[in-house]
Design goal:
Order of helices and strands: EEEEHHH
Structural class: alpha+beta
Radius of gyration: 47 Å
Shape: rod-shaped
Strand content: 5-15%
Strand order of the largest sheet: 1-2
Largest sheet: 2 strands, antiparallel
């Protein structure tokens, strides 16, 4: 669309408007809608400016939220690691702290259950070693007593007693070896 205006010297000046035109027609009428492209361009440039500012702000806010959330989770995992290290250096007996009800808390609970089983196994193992030690010590003590107090005139009887006790020790050692291999 062009419009002509006269200026004070008698020359004409042409104004130009760029329009966006949309038409819709039906058998009885035609509707024409027009708007200046200048307002559309202005809206687009304002939207672009808002996006240039908004996208980095939203990205920074998302990064900060992610950093905070992951940091909180990793602090809980680090606390579990520190507790586990303290338990290891103290030779057991402790438990890790379960600080939340999420997956990290479930991990702490699972580790505590595992530590309970390990402690129970350690107690059983100590009891077993103590019992095995006693079972081996008894025949050795019997052998020593027989040899120290034995009558040299009855050396044959003493020898039979010592051989019987040595066979008992061998049997205990064979049983222990079998248990160690089957474990």
């Amino acid at each position: 669309v062009e419009s002509h205006e006269d200026d004070h010297e008698g020359e004409s000046e042409i104004e130009r408007y760029e329009l966006r035109v949309a038409t819709a027609s039906s058998p009885s009428a035609t509707v024409v809608i027009a708007s200046e492209l200048e307002s559309v361009d202005q809206t687009l440039s304002e939207s672009a400016a808002l996006l240039l500012i908004g996208i980095p702000l939203v990205a920074a806010a998302g990064a900060a939220l992610l950093w905070n959330t992951s940091g909180r989770s990793l602090r809980a995992v680090e606390a579990i690691r520190v507790d586990a290290e303290a338990i290891t250096s103290s030779r057991g007996g402790g438990r890790v702290r379960a600080t939340s009800d999420d997956e990290v808390g479930e991990l702490a609970s699972t580790l505590n259950d595992m530590l309970d089983r390990l402690d129970a196994n350690a107690i059983t193992l100590r009891r077993f070693v103590s019992d095995a030690s006693h079972e081996i010590r008894s025949p050795i003590t019997n052998i020593r007593a027989r040899v120290e107090t034995g009558d040299p005139d009855h050396w044959h009887d003493l020898r039979n007693d010592v051989v019987g006790e040595v066979e008992r020790i061998e049997s205990i050692i064979d049983d222990l070896t079998y248990l160690a291999r089957s474990d």
